[in-house]
Amino acid sequence: xxxxxxxxxxxxxxxxxxxxxxxxxxxxxxxxxxxxxxxxxxxxxxxxxxxxxxxxxxxxxxxxxxxxxxxxxxxxxxxxxxxxxxxxxxxxxxxxxxxxxxxxxxxxxxxxxxxxxxxxxxxxxxxxxxxxxxxxxxxxxxxxxxxxxxxxxxxxxxxxxxxxxxxxxxxxxxxxxxxxxxxxxxxxxxxxxxxxxxxxxxxxxxxxxxxxxxxxxxxxxxxxxxxxxxxxxxxxxxxxxxxxxxxxxxxxxxxxxxxxxxxxxxxxxxxxxxxxxxxxxxxxxxxxxxxxxxxxxxxxxxxxxxxxxxxxxxxxxxxxxxxxxxxxxxxxxxxxxxxxxxxxxxxxxxxxxxxxxxxxxxxxxxxxxxxxxxxxxxxxxxxxxxxxxxxxxxxxxxxxxxxxxxxxxxxxxxxxxxxxxxxxxxxxxxxxxxxxxxxxxxxxxxxxxxxxxxxxxxxxxxxxxxxxxxxxxxxxxxxxxxxxxxxxxxxxxxxxxxxxxxxxxxxxxxxxxxxxxxxxxxxxxxxxxxxxxxxxxxxxxxxxxxxxxxxxxxxxxxxxxxxxxxxxxxxxxxxxxxxxxxxxxxxxxxxxxxxxxxxxxxxxxx
Length: 606
Fold this sequence. Notes:
Ubiquitin-like (UB roll); Alpha-Beta Plaits; Rossmann fold; five-stranded mixed sheet; 28 strands
């Protein structure tokens, strides 16, 4: 790679070194010179619409937006002087007068509104322009967030992040003049939108209270919250999270821009389903009496487990764990294995074979953005791995990558595909078409999920690889296996065997005791009961112990229930699909008498 040419500019009398092509703002920021901004957001395209970042160019009477103006070698700029501060204040006054910015009743009125901060920094104590007081609607129809047009400053940050990062372009600007406003689809609502993925990137990008999270509104001042870096465990991508807490509760969850996995972006599962979906916690150990579960102490629960297991041979007992457990808990499981007749990890249908694929190389996920041909085989990324779906949409829409979606259930990603075959034909006409689309692929990527492990899926994969290797470039595709479960690849590597069908696993030998570590499965482990035979077989076991964070149908049939800490109370590590060992840090102290999974299992060893 050829190094970019260095340039030197002078900003406010300070000599600054940068690279050719960098904007004035980028060079100023790199040299610790502050220039105020509103519409600018790092990693998004520059717009230059708010005019807060204006600078003077020596030799010119005009001011230019520093966020959208490339720096010229040898040029001299003024970024902070009385004239510029006066112009910026006038801009702020116009912004405040244009809409209904009534701070006392705004959910962002606690130091987090960038417009309000700029007002303080520029000494605003009045507005010299007449207020327009427009009558603008609010859109409260979204499941997790809302849009208040009265607080919008038309910075377009939400529009650009929706287009350039999430890749759906749900948002845009409509109407003219003072009637300008951000719209959803063709002037629909969030609740009726066909394209919105509810990722919340627009909310995270909004500098005012125009877009806000319903669950976070009026909960407290973010800059007074404690913020903890941790990892999302909703899928095996392992996105970095920034979790803000106050008064022993989660106030907000954002993506961590320093994370090499997601660089600040999140899907709806990581952004909202981690905390904004109410679930009924299990807060103390319980033992079933004749009709109900009765709260008991940890000592009583562990003593009862020891009493029951003491009467049984190891062959009559089993341990079944969730793939959401940490690496540290998995090590305890391997130490416990000799005390049980069998140990297994419950995974999704067709996922067992995928667990043997192993982790992919670090950095391969990032390669999706640069791929010129992407094949999604046997996976529903938009439903299960939203951040990867966003990378693929971006590669297709912004870089012209070819997309093939094969052997997978229908999803919104189908609309972006050059070839979409939910049921793959084996006829030559179909495969000739596939070969034509992939003919010039120089940087192909193959993302394959659990359904690719079926006989049809394996046949399709073999044909795809043969086509790609037969291309003029002869490039083998980047292979990215996608399990549905958080830590299943690493647990399988540690020797904890995956179990797809629970009923045959339970029926293979008579059991009197089954310990299920459901951990913080969102459904409390209830998916184990999806197989009708499994429900009946579980009821036949004399003692089922359910170790879980949330109440569910599984805990309703268990004899003993142990409260497990959810993701925001856990410590340890998980390993993502790239083989990165990622940290889990406790965000809140344990609620009630909940304990971490590893600690509960260690108690069984004593």
